[in-house]
Design goal:
The protein has ten helices and seven strands. By secondary structure, the protein is an alpha/beta fold. It folds into two domains: 6-50 and 127-251, HAD superfamily/HAD-like (Rossmann fold), CATH 3.40.50.1000; 52-125, Putative phosphatase, domain 2 (DNA polymerase, domain 1), CATH 1.10.150.240. Strands 1, 2, 3, 4, 5, 6 and 7 form a seven-stranded mixed sheet that branches.
Length: 252
């Protein structure tokens, strides 16, 4: 289920119901102080789509150095933030390729720009995690409006969602390309809510990456951090074991 194990993000946050019972979670949102969100924004990479194929491709480009994958990922995120702060936007895939070259050079691996770009190509055809189609279907049947919000370009996200056969699940596919600021910049979330004709407090973000959820932090802004069944940027060991209560709540 998509809310596999929505982890506690802030103390006293609203408890979710069991991960497999979406309607129960909806009932909690309806009956507790935090109202049911009118719209769910979904991060795409790792939250919806399985990055395993791209990680394999990147590791091969880095001469089989799987130990360099975390460094590549954090370097990519670091430079996307630098691009945002420096008002120097570039395509996220280009940033990913550039970060790969930096990591390669700093670790004695020979890697050309063309090879780095090729290593990023699998991101366009990633499969959804096994629980995603049924989870999204349950949310859709529960009456939720769902929209993707990604750092990838518009062409990239359209291709990703089409190839993952999830097109019918989402009302809109939003890309930060329009504002040329990468998540988790505050303006991205304000823009996305405004784009959908809603107030920020009427929306919820679902993301497997803690940084994206934690920065969704305006008054009354809400987020669900999905950690229980994902690899990559996940929560604590207790989160992954499923022993942590499933929660979602207001960010302040």
């Amino acid at each position: 289920m998509i809310f596999g194990a929505a982890a506690a993000i802030v103390p006293g946050a609203l408890e979710f119901a069991a991960a497999t019972d979406v309607q129960a979670a909806v009932n909690v949102l309806d009956t507790k102080p935090m109202k049911r969100p009118k719209l769910l924004f979904f991060d795409v990479n790792e939250t919806l789509l399985d990055l395993s194929a791209m990680k394999t491709s990147v590791a091969q480009a880095l001469d089989g150095r799987t130990d360099l994958l975390p460094l590549w990922f954090t370097t990519m995120l670091q430079y996307s933030l630098v691009a945002t702060v420096g008002v120097n936007y570039d395509d996220f895939l280009e940033i990913g390729a550039a970060a790969m070259i930096m990591v390669a050079r700093n670790n004695g691996v020979t890697l050309s720009q063309a090879a780095a770009r090729r290593a990023m190509l699998p991101i366009r055809s990633l499969p959804p995690h096994p629980d995603i189609p049924s989870g999204l279907d349950q949310l859709k049947k529960a009456g939720f409006c769902m929209v993707t919000l990604t750092n990838s370009s518009q062409v990239a996200v359209d291709t990703q969602i089409k190839n993952a056969e999830l097109m019918e699940m989402f009302e809109v596919r939003l890309s930060i390309e329009e504002v040329q600021l990468f998540k988790p910049h505050r303006h991205v979330y304000k823009w996305a809510a405004r784009k959908m004709g809603l107030l920020p407090e009427e929306c919820m973000l679902v993301a497997a990456h803690g940084g994206l959820a934690r920065c969704f932090s305006f008054p009354a802004r809400r987020s669900a951090l999905s950690t229980g069944t994902r690899t990559g940027n996940r929560g604590t060991e207790s989160d992954r074991s499923g022993k942590t209560p499933h929660r979602a709540g207001e960010m302040t």
